[in-house]
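User: Hi! Is it possible to get a structure for several chains at once, not just one? Here's what I have:
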Amino acid sequence: MEDLRDDRDSWSSENCSVARAMDIVGSRSTVLIMREALLGTRRFDDFVRRVGVGEPAMAARLKEMVAAGLLERIPYREPGQRTRHEYQLTRKGRELLPVITALRNWGDTWAADDAGPSIVATHHDCGEPVRAVLRCAAGHEMADGDIDIAAGPGLIRRG
Amino acid sequence: MEDLRDDRDSWSSENCSVARAMDIVGSRSTVLIMREALLGTRRFDDFVRRVGVGEPAMAARLKEMVAAGLLERIPYREPGQRTRHEYQLTRKGRELLPVITALRNWGDTWAADDAGPSIVATHHDCGEPVRAVLRCAAGHEMADGDIDIAAGPGLIRRG
DNA sequence: GGGCTGACTTGCGTTTGCATAAGCCAGCGA
DNA sequence: TCGCTGGCTTATGCAAACGCAAGTCAGCCC
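Assistant: Yes, the chains can be modeled jointly so their relative placement is included. Here is the combined structure:
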């Protein structure tokens, strides 16, 4: 099994999933909106207050995220109230949870304030803290030294 | 065990590790530089070529990343060449691998082009593909529905 | 039909990110 | 000592992101 890192210049990163993911969720406010959405927030003014960005920025961001398929704009009606809209996570959006969790883990370790982390994700069944870890399809958990880089079907070779 | 999502307005996200992580690695180019660094790139012009940003932006980004402790600027000398500097990952930087991996997984699933992913991380020992997954300290792997949000020591409660 | 409220939109000015083009500088080889 | 090369820095300008302040609009309540 060849490791592509050994000949990094024989292939290009044009078709890169990391870059494409960053085009969609690459801005600070988008990530913070995802954090809130994953914590259950759904309404416009709750997002504004909890994320801490202004209304114009929030409106623009939410519109982009609906267009990108991370959120869905759903009408709802509370009794005695007019019809409003809320922003619900789609599957595409919910599946960003490992990204947000990995970011939170890293921030807890390397960028926390003196008091320690403010919130901890825990396993509902056993109460133990949850982390994003690297695991192979055979079930082995690993550190970064145990990883090779192999070619996928979309690899663009050079020369 | 209380779930903090049930009373989201009783606490604030001021002290948030996700936000602080985004302040450090929140820009597209920083993430792409981390991608390349984790693939083994170390030299200035290799970063410029492989990441696809201009030299001024790269110089500024690398300087920030060294200041943030993600990279270290190390002098080296190839025989017959003058002394140069390369950018090596620190432990702080290397530990972003789960974040980058989670982003790549998500991009492969939700933002890939028709050809499929260009590269696949595999386990060196068994060759199976590697993913970032959520796992609790007791060893259970889980989906997003199995997660509670508990208070950490740094939580800021309100009124 | 007039007020109120949640959910935006508009306008303006600032900051940040990045591109392009050009210039600088250290030192090795000749 | 002179040119070459890798590794930047400087100059300039555009475009996107964001904050603040103010305005709009829909419709339920009265």
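Chain A touches chain B through 94 residues (CB under 8 Å). The CA atoms of residues 31 and 50 of chain A lie 13 Å apart.

User: Great, thank you!
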